[in-house]
Amino acid sequence: MALSPARTRASIYEGTRIPHPIPTVLRVPQDLRNTGDVMTVNFGPNHPSTHGVLRLIVDLFGEDVVGLEAVVGYLHTGFEKNMEQKTWWKAITYPARIDYLSYQNNELVFVLAIEKLLELKVPPKAQWMRTCLCELNRIHSHLVWLGTAALELGAISMFWYAFRERDLILDLFEMVCGARMHTRYFQAGGLAEDIPRGFFPEARKFCDWMPKAIDDYETLLTRNRIWLERTRGIGLLSAEDAIALGQSGPVLRASGVDWDIRRNEPYLTYHQVDFRVPVFPQGDVYARYRVHIEEMRESVRIVEQCLDRLENMEGDAWIADDRKVVLPPRHELHTSMESLIHHFKLVTEGYRVPEGEVYVATESPRGELGCYVVSDGGPKPWRVKFRAPSFVALEATATCMHDALIADMIAIVGSLDTVMGEVDR
Q: Is the pLDDT confidence value at 317 over 80?
C-alpha cells in the first residue's frame, strides 16, 4: 500500500465547499488552466474497479486533482419503466437488481409501498423476519464495501476476510429461499414461504462469530499507520454541506448529523429493538469507515433481538390471509379447483391496487431509499420512481475532492459507497 506525499491534514472546514454554479462539477480555475500544465484524463468508464460503470473526467495539476466531473448513464437499464409494464406481483423482482448489494432492502421498500396502498396488515412474524434479513443484508453490503475499499488502497487481505463473512450471510439467504442473491422472499402481505427449520441455529452461529470478525477487521485497519495516512483528513464533507447536498446514511452520519430513518421514522419492528446510531463528526474517509464498522456491530445486535422474538413464533402466520393478493397455500392446489384458478389468475393477471400515490422511505445500507408509486387502480403500477441514495452520494464527489491528490481520489470515491446500478437505474 503506497503512501501519498506527506502533508498537513486539515480538520473539517467551515462554511461551504460546494462548487458553484454546478454543485456536481469541480471547475479548474481559469488562471491555472492558462498555465498549460493542466492535464485532463479519463478515469473509466471501467468495471468493476469503480463499483460499476462510472466515468470521471479528471483535471490534474501534477498529482493534484483540480477539476472533476462525474459522467453516468453507461449502465442504464430502465428498471423503473420496466416495472410499469409488469403486474404488481411480477414487478417485485426488479428492485433487487437496482442495488445488487442491498437486494433485500430494495425489495422491501417496493413491497411496503404496495401494502400501504392496499392497507394490508402484515403478520408480526413476517415483520420480524423482514427486519432480521434486512440487517443481515446491511452487514452483507458493508462487507462488500469494506473489502473493496480496502483493496483499492492496497489492503488485499482485508478483501478475503470480508468476503469470508459475506459468504456466511449468503448461506443464510440460500437456506431461507433457495437463492443467494435477488431472493424475492418479501411478498405483498408477508413472506414468500415460512422460515425453514435450521435457520435459527445457523443465524445464531453467525451472530456469535461476527463480532470477533469485526474485531479482526479493526485490528487490521483502525490503527494501521498506512490506513490512517490514506483516510484521515481526506474527502472532507461538513454537516452543512452534507445536508445541502441531500446526503443520508453513513455519508451523512460520518459528517456528524445524527439521522437514521430506522430510529427517527421507524418501520417494520425497529421501534421494538435496541440499537445505537453511530455518528462521527470528522466528515472524512476515515469517519465513513468507522460508521460502517460500528453499524455492522449494531446490526448483529438487531439480528439477535429478532431471533429472540422469532424463535417464540413457531406456527404463527407468515403472510396475510387475503386471497385477493396472496397466493393460495400450495397444498390446496392439489385438492381445490378454486385455489388452482385463483393461483393462475394472480400469477398471470396480477391483483389490482386501489388508485392513489404513496412515498415510502427506508434506511438502506447506503442511506434513504425511497419508493414513489402511483396506481391508477389497475394490475400494473402507473408510475414507479426510486430515490436512490447512491445517486445522491455521487453528487458529493466534487465537494469532497477539494485539495485531493490523484491517489486520494480512489479512497474518496470508494468511501461514498455508490452502486452504479442504483445510480443509473
A: yes
